[in-house]
Amino acid sequence: MRENDYIPTILIVDDMAANIAILSDLLQSSYKIKIAKNGQRALDIARGKEKPDLILLDIEMPQMSGYEVCKKLKDSSDTRNIPVIFVTAKNDTTDEEYGLKLGAIDYIKKPFHPAIIKIRVRNHINLKLKSDKLEELSMCDSLTGIPNRRYFDETLEKKHKEVLRDKKSLAVIMIDIDFFKLYNDNYGHWKGDECLAKVATTLRKTLKRPTDTVSRYGGEEFIILLKDIDKDGAKKVAESLVNAVAELKIPHEYSPVTNFVTISAGVAIKEENETISKEELLKIADDELYRAKESGRNRFCAGF
Fold first, then answer.
1. Does the annotation count 220 as an active-site position?
2. Model-wide pTM > 0.85
3. Which of 94, 112, 138 is the last residue of a domain?
4. I need a surface site. Which of 17, 96, 128, 152 has the fewest CB within 10 A?
5. DSSP strand pairing (9-13 vs 263-270)
6. In whole numbers, what is the pLDDT of the chain averaged over residues?
7. What is residue 136's predicted lDDT score, i.e. its pLDDT?
8. Co-location of 291 and 177 in the same domain
9. Which domain holds residue 266?
């Protein structure tokens, strides 16, 4: 979640140092500024970890035109949501029409008026931040405050492609709260909701690496995604999660396992040089979760 003091980032792309200086001086008091003097550098920045919130893009540049840069940005799922404003000396209406058809949200002709640039940038940044907030909310489980099933599905799709490409490992841990129906039936649904929220928070806090994610998979099920980890590491994470929930000591006198809330977990992994579909990975984790339940619960089982 973005903090209230978040400062948006604007990427200025132009091969003329004077144009970059003018736009930077105009906007740097309100925004973080990144600079690219050619199309390839602009694409590298846009594809990076800290993506810009808005791109001001010149059209006439050597090697790769602004039109080409915009098309590449809009063709990629990783960058297509970054708004692009063309700032250019090309003032023919056919050029403007072409730029907007490529996916740019605005087209500003040089010479521009500084006040107009500032207002247009401000308006588009505000729209982008509101859109990002709505997208963020759509990916969050309202009860537990952790990511939801939609977030997990999209993240699994993305990370699975990454690990296949980069020959990295990817582990999945599927988790179920033991005898949660008995908990709900005897303590009431409001206590059940409270239990779900506590377990979710504990699972999230137990994960140590910022790249590790936990999502609510549905009902009393949670799912963990661990990129670039070995078998022993995945087992240690699963064990720490099971222990962390048990240590909460949430009373559950109706559980046949213990007198407090516990979880069972199933672990699956795609190793570095292994090719396995995401569906297979999920099935293995689900099968191992079932095996953990059959083995007595309050434990994890691993499919390796």
1. yes
2. no
3. 138
4. 17
5. unpaired
6. 93
7. 83
8. yes
9. 149-302
